[in-house]
Amino acid sequence: LNIRTTSSPRFSPDGRSIAFLWNITGTTQIWQIDQNGSWPTQLTFLNEPVRGFDFHPLKHEIIFSVDQGGNEQTQL
User: Fold this and answer.
1) Which of 32, 58, 62, 68 yields a CA-CA distance of 20 to 30 A from 17?
2) What is the pLDDT, as a whole number, of residue 2?
3) What are the Cα distances from residue 20, in Å, to 42, 56, 63, 68?
């Protein structure tokens, strides 16, 4: 069984895009889709799954959390 899921949608501060977590590659990463509805763009390319993220309210930046090997010691 190969079920892909998305979660944690967040609007960008300018409202022009939505970022979300998606495990389509086999590891949960951050993806972003523009308001035009084109195919999403992958923003992170890590070997470990991204646990959470949020936009910086004033800059065009995202902060995200990830741990190594499932050790549950999340780093930003």
Assistant:
1) 68
2) 76
3) 10, 15, 13, 21
Of 33, 50, 51, which Cα lies nearest the Cα of 42?
33
**Listing from the earlier edge strand, what are the strands of the sheet with 29-34?**
6-11, 17-22, 29-34, 41-42
- Per-residue pLDDT, averaged over 10-25, amounts to 94
Mapping DSSP onto H, E and C, the string for 24-44 reads CCCCCEEEEEECCCCCCEECC
Contact, 33 vs 22, CB < 8 A?
A: no
- Side-chain half-sphere CA neighbours of 49 within 13 A: 17
Q: What is the pTM of this model?
A: 0.90
> How far, in Å, CA of 67 to CA of 51, rounded?
8
- What is the C-alpha to C-alpha distance for residues 72 and 5, in angstroms, rounded to an integer? 21
H/E stretch holding 27 reads none
Q: In degrees, to the nearest 5, what angle opens at C-alpha 63 toward C-alphas 66 and 65?
A: 15
